[in-house]
Amino acid sequence: MKKSIVTGGIALIPVLLLSGFALAQSANVETLRGADVDELIPLDQIHKNVEGRMQRNYRQQPPLVPHSIEQYQIDVRTNQCLSCHDWTKAGERNAPTLSMTHYLDREGRELDHIAGTRYFCNQCHVPQADAPALVDNVFEPSSGN
Ligand code: HEC
Ligand code: HEC
User: Fold this and answer.
1) So where does heme c 1 get bound (predicted)?
2) Cα of 138 to ligand 2 centre, how many Å?
3) Distances from the Cα of 144 to the Cαs of 59, 79, 138, 140, in angstroms?
4) What is the value of pTM for the model shown?
């Protein structure tokens, strides 16, 4: 008696497995992004980098970055922006040299290397993008008055 219950139970296993499989097949799973995993969805053109150098809106504005920055690592050990923009490299890389203000420490002393206060470039410099303003802005440069 006991044996037949056990074998009966074992015989049920494939049936249960198969029905579970059938259920999973029929469930209609929708992706959050509304496309298949391997399908590329192009980014909104509006957030693409704008070609050419944009005019500064006021004299002291950190210039916007006229190229993509995604691939340039900045962390405690490395700063790839410096591999083109530091004064030691800018000539050969044909890139604008860092502003001389970036080589002054807090006391105004001239340094030969970038000041710690200017190390994390993207604190101040952001890539150019033709994006709608997130908040209303009525800023006008003083010379505009
Ligand atoms: C492969 C070299 C290279 C690297 C790396 C690089 N840049 Fe540049 N960058 C350039 C060149 C060349 C220009 C000038 C482009 C032009 O005139 O259109 C430029 C222009 C700029 C400007 C505009 C300067 C101005 O006076 O208008 C800023 C700001 C800037 N880069 C910031 C950065 C930052 C921040 C990083 C790192 C995230 C970075 N760059 C990494 C080559 C580089
Ligand atoms: C604390 C803000 C700040 C940080 C951090 C900073 N910058 Fe700037 N940067 C500015 C400002 C403001 C200007 C324009 C005024 C000036 O020349 O100081 C400028 C100017 C520049 C220019 C234009 C120079 C010229 O003569 O036209 C370049 C290139 C530049 N920065 C690159 C960088 C790079 C690369 C880094 C990171 C290694 C960096 N900056 C970090 C604020 C910053």
Assistant:
1) 67, 81, 84-85
2) 24
3) 12, 37, 12, 6
4) 0.79
